Amino acid sequence: MEYIVTSIGLSLVQGFVLxxxxxxxxxxxxxxxxxxxxxxxxxIFQEYFDICKWWKKATILTPYTGVIxxxxxxxxxxxxxxxxxxxxxxxxxxxxxxxxxxxVYILALGRxxxxxxxxDAATSFGGMGGSREIYISVLVEPAVMLAILINSIRxxxxxxxxxxxxxxxxxxxxxxxLACVAFFLVMLAxxxxxxxxxxxxxxxxxxxxxxxxxxxxxKLLSLIHLGSYLKIVVFLAxxxxxxxxxxxxxxxxxxxxxxxxxxxxxLNNKMRLFKVRVYLGAAIVLLLLAIIAE
Amino acid sequence: xxxxxxxxxxxLLGAVTFIWPKKAELVAHYFGMLCSIAASGxxxxxxxxxxxxxxxxxxxxxxxxxxxxxxxxxxxxxxxITGVAGVIISIYAIDYGKGYLGSRIRALGGLWNLFLMSIVxxxxxxxxxxxxxxxxxxxxxxxxxxxxxxxxxxxxxxxxQYMVMTHIGTAAIMVAFYLVASAAESFSFIDMANNNLxxxxxxxxxxxxxxxxxxxxGLMPLHIWLPNAHPAAPSHVSALMSGVMLKVALYGFxxxxxxxxxxxxxxxxxxxxxxxxxxxxLGVLYATMEVDMKRILAYSSVENMGIIFSAxxxxxxxxxxxxxxxxxxxxxxxxxxxxxxxxxxxxxxxxAGCVMHATGSKNIEHMGGLARKMPYTALFTLIGxxxxxxxxxxxxxxxxxLTLQSFITFAQQAGSPELRLLVVFAFIMLGLTGATALGCFxxxxxxxxxxxxxxxxxEKAHEMPFxxxxxxxxxxxLIVFVGVMPDFLVNLMQRVVSGSGxxxxxxxxxxxxxxxxxxxxxxxALIFIVFAFIGVFMVAAVYRSxxxxxxxxxxxxxxxxxxxxxYSATGFSKPLRRAFDGILNPxxxxxxxxxxxxxxxxxxxxxxxxxxxxNDKLYKPLQQMLINSxxxxxxIQEGSVSIYIGYTMVAMIVxxxxxxxx
Lengths: 294, 662
Known about the structure:
The structure holds two protein chains of two kinds.
Chain A: H1 2-36, H2 46-56, E1 59-61, H3 67-86, H4 100-120, H5 124-155, H6 174-190, H7 209-212, H8 218-243, H9 250-267, H10 276-293
Chain B: H1 3-14, H2 25-53, E1 60-64, E2 67-71, H3 73-96, H4 105-124, H5 128-146, H6 153-184, H7 189-192, H8 199-217, H9 226-232, H10 235-261, H11 266-289, H12 293-320, H13 324-359, H14 370-373, H15 375-388, H16 395-413, H17 417-449, H18 466-484, H19 487-498, E3 506-507, E4 510-515, E5 518-522, H20 524-542, E6 548-551, H21 569-572, H22 574-579, H23 581-584, E7 587-592, E8 604-609, H24 613-633, H25 641-661
Antiparallel strand pairs in B: 1-2, 3-4, 4-5, 7-8
Helix pairs in contact in B: 1-2, 1-4, 2-3, 2-4, 3-4, 3-10, 3-13, 3-18, 3-19, 4-5, 4-10, 5-6, 6-8, 6-9, 8-10, 9-10, 9-12, 10-12, 10-13, 11-12, 11-17, 12-13, 12-16, 12-17, 13-15, 13-16, 13-18, 13-19, 15-17, 15-18, 16-17, 16-18
C-alpha cells in the first residue's frame, strides 16, 4: 500500500514537472522555426507569458453554449496531465498506473470532450474542426495500436514503464528504426502539427485544432493551450523513452525531438486534408514492416 | 422449487394482461410491468447466487419427459445479463409504455413478459428440443413486438424481413443440432457433449451453428434485418432485443464451441475472429453515416457484437494453439463486453425512446440543443455515449481493454509471419473501430443534444417522467460502477470460463492479466482517484464567479449566426465518408433548375444515400436469382389438372423403378 502511494506521489510530481517545462518546449519549437525562417522570433519563454495573459482575461461565453462547453477545457487539460503522469522514464518506477491502451484512451477522453464542445457553440467553424479531428483520429488510431503492439511483443507487457526501449537488444535494429520513424509521423498527426494541421494559422480552410478552440477565451483558452503544450511534451517523452534507439538522457531526447519538429514544420507544407490518409498509411506500412522484422 | 422456475411462472402470470378487461388497460400495463420486474429480479438474484456459490456443472436439473431444464455457469452469466436488463428496462417501460395506451397496450405488456420468459427459457434449456422450442417462441414473440406499430408500412416490412431472416437462422441451428444430436444419439445437452462427430461432419456442424447464431447476433453479412428491425420496434423492446437477445446468440454459439464441437481446429476460431473484426469496423462505419438515432444504435450493435465475437474467436484460436490458460482472458473479455454492452446499449436505446417521446422524431438532423430542454436525459445519454466510445471510467473501456489484451496475448504466441500479419490486421481493425466509435457517438450526441435547435420540434421538448429517468439512471450508475470498480464483474465472468481454480484477474487495484512472462494492469480506481484529486483543484481554480462575466454571440465572420449554419450530421461525417468511399459507395444526386441564375439563388436539390454494401452486392443479386429461377419453374406450372396428375404418375413410376433397382 505504501509502495502504491509513493508511486502515485512520484507520478504526480512527474506530471507537474512536465507541466512546468511544457510551455518551454513549445517555445523552443517556435524559436527553431523562427530562426530557420530567418526571423528573430519571440523569446522561448513567450508561451508562459501567453498562458498568464489568457488566465487573467475574462472568459466570454456565447448564449448557445451549455455545461459541456465550460467543462471540456478542464477535462482536456486533465487528460493531458494524466497522460503526463503515466509516461515512463523520469520518476516512475516499475509500478505504474500507465497501461499503454489506457494512455491512448485517456487522451481519447480529452478528444471526446473537445469535439463535443466544438459543436456546442453552434457555428460551422466548430463543427468543421470537430469533424476533421475525428477524421484524423480515425486514421491515426490504427498506427497508434500497431506502435503499442510492436513494443508489447518485444517486452511482453503493455505497461508503459515496462515497454521502455532496451538499448542492448534494440540498438538500431531494422524494426526499432522503422518503429521510431513511424511513431514520429504518428506524433505529428496526434498533436495537430504540420504537415497534418497547421498550428499557426487561423484560416478556416486549413485549421483543425484551432477551429475547435475558436470560441474559447480567458481561463478556458489558457487551459486548452496548456493542455496541448503538455500533450506535445508527453508524446516527445514517450517517443524518446519507447522508440528512439539511442542511449542518451531522456531530457536531451525531448529537446532534440522538439528541434526536429521545428525543422520538419519548416520544411513541409500542410497537406490536403484527404491526402492525410496516404501519410498515415505510410506510417502503418512502416509499422507493419517493423512487426514482421521483429 | 427453484427460483428460476418460479420466475418463469411469474412471467406467465404477467402474460394474463392479454385477457385483461379493456376498460382497465392502464392497470393491466402496470400489472404486466410489475410481473416482469419481479420475475427479472428473481432471475438476476438466483443467477448471481449460481455464479457466486459453487462451480458445479448443472445448477438446475429438472425434467418433464423429454423436456429438461438445466443451467451451468455459462447460462448463469447470461441469466445475470437478462435479469439486470429485464428489471431496468421494465422500470423504464412503466412510463414509456403509457404512450401505447389505446393501441394494444395489453398485448404489448403480455408479449413483453413472454419475450423475457422465452429468453430465460432458452438460457436454461437442457436439451435440443427445449432449446429450439424456446428459441422459436423468442423469434415469434419478438416478431410480434417489432410489428407492434403495424400501422406504419415500414414497420411491417421490417418485421417480415426479420421474420424471414431469423427463420433462416433457426433452420441452420436446427441442422447443427441435428448433426450433433444424431452423432450422440441423444438430444440431451449432457449426452451431446460426448458426441463422436467425424472431422468432416464436425466442420459442417460448426459452419451451420456459426451461421445460425451469427445471423441472430447480427454479424456481417447476415446483419441486414437488424438496422431495420430495431428502429421499427418500440424503444424498450429494441433495448431488450439489442441488449439481451443478441447476446443469447452468443450463449448458443458458446454452447456449441465449448461443449458440442470443441475448439481444436484452428480455422474455426479464425473464421469467428475475422468475421467479428470485419463486422466491428463496418458496423461502426455505417453507424457513423446514419442520421436516424435508432439506426445508429442498431449498427453500433453490429459493431459491438463484432467485438464480442472477435474476442471469442481469439479465445478459440488460443485454445486450438494449446494455450487453454491464456484463452481465459479472451472468453472473459467476450463475456464482460457482452454484459457491459447490454448495459450501455440498453441505456442508449432507452434514451432514444426519450428523445422520440420528447420530439416525435428519430432524425438527429432535426434536433439540436436538447440538453437544455431535458438535462437529466442529456446527462445519462452522455454517460452512455462515453461508454460506447469506450472512454475511461465507464464499463465500455473494461471490455475493450480486455479484448485488446486478449489480442496482445495472441500476438505474444504468434511467431510465424502469417500469424503476425493476422495480428496486424486485427489491431488495425480494432484501432479503426475504436476511433470511429468515438466519432460516431460524438456526432450523435453533439448534433442532437448540443448547439441550437435546428427545427421547431425541439421547442416543445420536455424532461421525461420519473420512471423513464429512473431506468436511465440505473443503467448509468451500473456503467460507471463497473467502469471504476471492474473487479466484481470481471471475476464473476472469469469464474464462468475458468472455474475458481486459477488466479482471478480482478483485485481491488483493478484488473491484472499475465501469463508466460507477460503482464498488464489496468487500475481504473487509482486513475479515478488521481483524476478526481486534480479535478477538485481545477474546478476550484477555474469556476469562480469572476470567470464568466460577459456573453457575446458566437463569431460568425461578422454576421449573426442562424441555427442552420451549424454543422449537420451528414456534413460531420463527410470526411470519413470520403476516406472510406471505396467501401461505402455513397450515391449523390444533385439537380437544380437551369432557368434561374447560374451561380446565385438557384434552387438546388441534393440527395445522398448510402446503401448497405451487402444489401447491394449480396442480397439483391440473390433475390434476383431466386426470382429468375422461380420464373423458369413457371413453365412447368401450367395450371391444368391433368398435367399435375401426369406429374404424379411420372413421379410414382420413377419411385417404383428406383425401388426395384436398389
